[in-house]
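Batch manifest, entry 17 of 40.
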Amino acid sequence: MRRRTAISVTIAIAAAVPSLFSMPASAAPPAGACRDPEPARPVIADLPWAQQLLDLRSTWRHSTGAGVVVAVLDSGVDADHRQLRGRVLAGRDFFLVGDLRGNFDCVSHGTAVGSIIAAGPADGVGFRGVAPGARILPVRITDRELNDQGEPSPIDPAVVARGIRYAADRGAKVINLSLSGYGDFPAIRNAIRYAQSKDALLVAAAGNRQDSAPAASYPAAYPGVLGVGAIDIAGARSSGSQVGDHVDLVAPGTAVVGAARAGGHDYYDGTSFAAPFVAGTAALVRTAWPELTAAQVAERLMATASPARGGRNSREYGAGVVDPYRAVTERLSERDPLVLPEVALPAPDPAVVRTAAWWARTGASAKFGAGVVALSLVLAGVLAWALPRGRRRRWRPGRAERLPAAPSRDEPPEEIFLFPPPPVEERPRR
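Output type: structure tokens
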């Protein structure tokens, strides 16, 4: 089983130019765009554990995310994948120079993220996205997960910032950021504020570099951004999923299924692939509750989260595991919970108290009497055994038989011992 890991952001240089927003006819990568494109993967037919856990089929009776645009800032999204056809807009490429769209992918990372959000049904395939009625706006900000040295490819913060502003201006109501880093960059922070002013909800990966000294991870740590950690099939925090106050929710992020570029599926690990489960759920809520603001959608997602191992509002699990069904169907109240009155114990009945005291005294007396009788019987037995023996001996003391003398040990010469004798048997040296 081949597993993939998430993008981790530090920083490099890129440029950006305008692109299309219409639905494309073909999404093949432009000539020369992919240096080493990944091949297609086999189809995974089984229903993945994450989709089973989130009970999506029950949720789709109430909302599919129809009418909501979810922006995916990533390596692009392959619009030609059969489960994404007709669901991916042209978008824009902010990584390569030129008038390029963003609906192609060289490394499958963005395709997997987009498919977890909005993949549609396909014959013989159990996998589907959380919000199959939503539309994906691909915003391409990187070209590959790892550089030629096998290290995470750095991303220019200015490119990320332009991508966020572009998504907000194109009407994206949910923006998925499956990237993380330790740097607080003003350009990204200001772009996030701009998107929030456009009523966009931003969802970001919590990060995959957990160590003994947890640190804030950006952009998840920015105010108003939903930070998402990862759990495994047992509900435990995935190894590496970062811990901290920036973790608002958790979602499946270990061995989760997602689409691969050029066809098929793959298994993926990391908070990058937990974030789209929350982004897709946000799309469901924005369709079911269109009157809610982005901040209210975030509050709803946290209020309806299922309990996690760390308890409510822990640094490992946040508010809990995202729950699409509850997020869409439950009605929340803005009123504080009612205060329960204190329990007033009734005054005891005097007659009952007197009766209980009488029984207590009677029981104590009965126990004392029984103890005296038992002691008397024991003493009588001892006397019945001792008196006849004393008369026979005429009350002379008996003598115990002398113990036999310990036999002397006929020990062999020391030289025949292959190992030295135990310390208690060693004789003093002369």
